[in-house]
Design goal:
It is a single chain. The protein is mainly alpha-helical. It has one domain. It starts with a helix and ends with a helix. The N terminus is likely disordered.
Length: 298
């Protein structure tokens, strides 16, 4: 449920890591996946524009078109997707009071993944249009932002002793879980620590895939500029390579992360108290109310 959506600190499970992969086309999807308040969603077109502008330094002409494209995307998403997400949150409220199996958790994750893919499809045309307009200087700016993203990833996941890195991951996992269930007990924190220790997460392998995707993005833009008639096709193929890496070993690794994340969520949820589950229901109800209010706005 909420833990599956948030990924429970399993990199690659959901679109949160898409931003750090430096992929412009997935920015809007990231904001959709992370939205928890009406204010954040209503500001999403502006925040998306700022993110894109920071990465490529848009010209005045590009700015006008990008703002229009973002406005259209979020109008579509508000109308078509938010009601479905609200219904899903209602379903999760019912699930939250019972035990949850890893298979149930993964089924919810798969539902979210498919919805994100539909959203990604809506970004193909505007992304292709922008790609054709980017200058060599803007691509250099994008590469610079990618390098900064890589530095952040290294700080978060590759520096320090194994114990220090584990503690950092645990702190983040606890913070996310407590925003959902309320205060965790020492035993529940230990349970999370055990799962993180068993996780197949390999930051070096994840970083290697990040670098591949960053290079793929740049090459996709260059290829689109060389063959403008194929721009949209090239963007679709780029998105497909984000969805499933062309590296067979990484695809298997990512699937293992998904399975482990589902099992981790189910184990923690099943260890919660009735009070914690009631808190989860309240949180989910708040999200549902926000999304229904937003979907009613035009």
């Amino acid at each position: 449920m909420h833990g599956v959506l948030a990924g429970h600190h399993q990199p690659g499970i959901i679109a949160r890591r898409a931003l750090r992969l430096g992929t412009l086309v997935t920015l809007a999807i990231l904001l959709v996946a992370c939205t928890a308040t009406r204010l954040a969603y209503n500001q999403a077109p502006t925040l998306s524009y700022w993110w894109i502008d920071r990465h490529v330094d848009l010209t005045d002409t590009q700015t006008a078109q990008t703002r229009e494209d973002l406005k259209a995307f979020f109008q579509w998403h508000r109308r078509q997707e938010l009601p479905a997400y609200a219904s899903l949150l209602r379903e999760w409220q019912t699930m939250a009071v019972d035990q949850v199996s890893p298979a149930q958790a993964c089924a919810q994750f798969e539902d979210i993944r498919q919805r994100l893919e539909r959203a990604a499809a809506e970004t193909v045309e505007p992304f292709a249009r922008l790609a054709l307009q980017l200058t060599p200087e803007q691509l250099e700016n994008l590469k610079k932002q990618q390098a900064e993203s890589n530095e952040d990833f290294e700080k978060d996941f590759l520096r320090g002793s194994p114990q220090q890195r584990l503690n950092k991951r645990l702190d983040k996992a606890v913070e996310r879980s407590e925003s959902f269930y309320g205060k965790l007990s020492p035993a529940q924190r230990d349970l999370l620590r055990d799962w993180l220790q068993q996780s197949p997460f390999d930051p070096q392998r994840t970083q290697a895939e990040r670098l591949r995707r960053q290079a793929d993005l740049l090459q996709t833009i260059r290829d689109a500029q060389a063959t403008p008639a194929k721009a949209e096709q090239l963007v679709r193929e780029h998105i497909a390579r984000i969805r499933q890496s062309p590296e067979p070993s990484y695809h298997a690794y990512n699937q293992a992360l998904v399975r482990q994340g589902c099992a981790q969520f189910a184990t923690l949820h099943n260890a919660t108290t009735p009070e914690q589950r009631a808190n989860a229901v309240r949180v989910l109800k708040g999200y549902e109310d926000d999304l229904r209010t937003l979907s009613a706005q035009r």
